[in-house]
Design a protein that fits this description.
Layout: H1 9-17, H2 25-45, H3 57-92, H4 101-136, H5 142-167, H6 174-205
Helix pairs in contact: 2-3, 2-4, 2-5, 3-4, 4-5, 4-6, 5-6
Length: 206
């Protein structure tokens, strides 16, 4: 498969809109998360070098290094999500009397959960960075911080849906319950904080 993350925006969107099985919701979630991180990086770039923010410049530089890693990983997950979905589709096309059929389905389903789960984990980190950007970054770009937060929230919720659509098919397996518990914890830990940050940003902008 050609790397989806390397395609133009218009080509990616056309593929997403088509009857092609990938990219789908999981890849879109990872891409949206990458956009949120990119906005965080933009705020950092407009902060570094400004006399007004000289006292926090080292902090911002450290955040920028983290942002670069997170953004790159999210783009990789766009492709990994598509690859795992292909493998899942192949598993379902096997004859049901194939030796170990159900075990192979469970394995492929769990594999298909990996990219969206990691998307959620990365967006949790991205939201923490955006919170710091809100406090320390260039105040002229506070709306971009807010947009970054909203995009990361959307990415997390979208990725969670793409986990649930898979775990729902193997609900009786302990592996599925473990993954669902994991993402429930991550979402409940981070999204309320992100909502508070958005409230603070809206107050600053008003």
């Amino acid at each position: 498969m050609n790397e989806l993350s390397q395609k133009s925006c218009s080509t990616f969107i056309d593929l997403l809109a088509s009857k092609s099985p990938a990219p789908g919701g999981g890849g879109a979630a990872a891409l949206v998360g990458a956009l949120g991180v990119a906005l965080s990086s933009m705020v950092g770039n407009y902060t570094i070098g400004k006399k007004k923010y000289i006292n926090v410049e080292n902090d911002i530089r450290q955040l920028q290094t983290k942002n670069s890693l997170l953004q790159a990983r999210l783009l990789e997950l766009v492709d990994e999500d598509a690859e795992s979905f292909e493998l899942l589709t192949q598993a379902y096309t096997m004859p049901k009397d194939t030796l170990g059929y159900q075990s192979l389905i469970v394995q492929a389903t769990m594999n298909a959960c990996k990219a969206p789960v990691e998307t959620i984990e990365i967006c949790v980190q991205a939201l923490a960075i955006l919170e710091e950007m809100m406090k320390k970054g260039n105040k002229n770009l506070i709306s971009d911080v807010g947009c970054g937060i909203l995009l990361c929230q959307a990415a997390m919720k979208s990725a969670a849906l793409n986990v649930y659509v898979n775990t729902n098919t193997i609900r009786n397996y302990p592996e599925a319950k473990k993954i669902e518990s994991r993402i429930k914890f991550l979402i409940e830990e981070s999204l309320p904080k992100a909502e508070k940050d958005m409230e603070n940003i809206m107050e600053l902008m008003r």
